[in-house]
Specification:
The protein has about 500 residues and is α/β, with parallel strands linked by helices. It has a single domain, classed as Alpha/Beta hydrolase fold, catalytic domain (Rossmann fold). The chain has 20 helices and nine strands. The chain has a nine-stranded mixed beta sheet, sandwiched between helices. Helix 8 links the parallel strand 6 and strand 7. The chain is globular, with a radius of gyration of 24 Å. Belongs to the peptidase S33 family. Pfam families: EHN.
Length: about 500
Amino acid sequence: MSKVGNHLELLQCLYLVQIKLDGVTSELAPDNEMFMARLLFVLLLVVLGAPVYFLFFKSPPSAPEIDLDEWWGPDQLKTKQDTSIKPFKIKFDETMIKDLKDRLKSHRPYIPPLEGVGFEYGFNSKQMNSWVKYWAEEYPFAAREQLFNKYPQFKTNIQGLDIHFIRVKPEVPAGVQTVPLLLLHGWPGSVREFDAAIPLLTAVSKDRDFALELIVPSLPGYGFSSPAVRPGLGADKMAVVFRNLMHRLGFKKFYVQGGDWGGIITGNMATLFPQDVLGYHSNIVFSMTPRTTLIQILGSIYPPLVVSSDLADRMYPLSQKFSYLVEEMGYLHIQSTKPDTVGVALTDSPSGLLAYILEKFSTWTKPEYKLLADGGLYSKFTKEQLIDNLMMYWATNSITTSMRLYSETFNKRYTGLKLDEVPTPVPTWLLQAKNEISYLPGWIVKSKYVNLINETIVNDGGHFFAMEMPKFFAEDVLKAIGEFRKWHKQNNIKTEL
């Protein structure tokens, strides 16, 4: 957005505020009250004028320099790098299964919940016995192992890290182009989130002149991807790893999609590698800029300044939204500061891991589920699906290393890069679910993603959208990529893959 556009945007906001003040004070009738209201408004402009001007009209930062070869693995591997791509299969070994069952069966008695509560205090301990019994005695390990291996999987070493990924390439008829899509999960999810969406995304249709080849990796330190051995592997550094993965696979240009950490990492890829990323689809909108914060605060005075009335409840009242964030973000503070401490407990206790992760699948799917005794976990998911996801953490002993991503990203180094403020030309498409933790109107997002093509507003769904509503998710992603391709043609941008 140009500086002139920003000026007009701010003036419009201020004009609307004054109209609102006029409307409010006119009901009070006395002239002195009108005068005082106008005086208060002028004083507000004087007090906020300088910082507002600074936040809205300063030149945006540039993208930082990037080290494409930064090494995250053991030093001894650096001299004998293996760039091969090897087939991989998941194997639940009998020793691991026996140990897991023994731990599940030998837990101490759970402390009873308070009377009349659901999930307000966290995972309801009355629900624990049924879940633990299922995992230890009924979960079909062999059958689920086969399901885990339904799609072709591989490993390759990128910057010292063995990266695990699913790769699905459809068979296409003549005249249909295969285009690559990198699909990234977040925490506490895994590649299992996309299981039902994969066949929908890779389906060939007579209505499309393209079909998707999917690359679905486990994030470093998650599942079957190895973790860094030294500090610093934040979301921006993971963006480099996945750019290098796509290049390793022969894709110089590609599309990206992500939610949660996956959305942040793919957003960083679009910012750092706009020449490589052909389009960015995300089902989470996240911004930590002072400008965004100021707009949200101004909107709390008069929401129509910021958001349409039918969506205002997704942002306001701020007191309610901040209260919800305080209630739900305790985990984030722990994992951003002391991930290894909580990791000890979760690594040692599978029932603890179950409670810690499944509680997120309850309240992040729909906030009201916390009022239910079973947390609403059966509303959108099956027990098999949820335990499958737990197995990605338990079988690989990766819960501690997964949580380190928070401490490696929510820190001075990462925030100092100001990546949320770097304008990104990559065509962008947002999917904003009703119950996602955050919501931002498209016009705010457009100051960052200047070629925002569309935002799909959904009156259902939550944080784990691809797992909750795979058909809707796949259709939206395919529609977005179709529009990205049209956008490239209209703007005469080369998209050779």
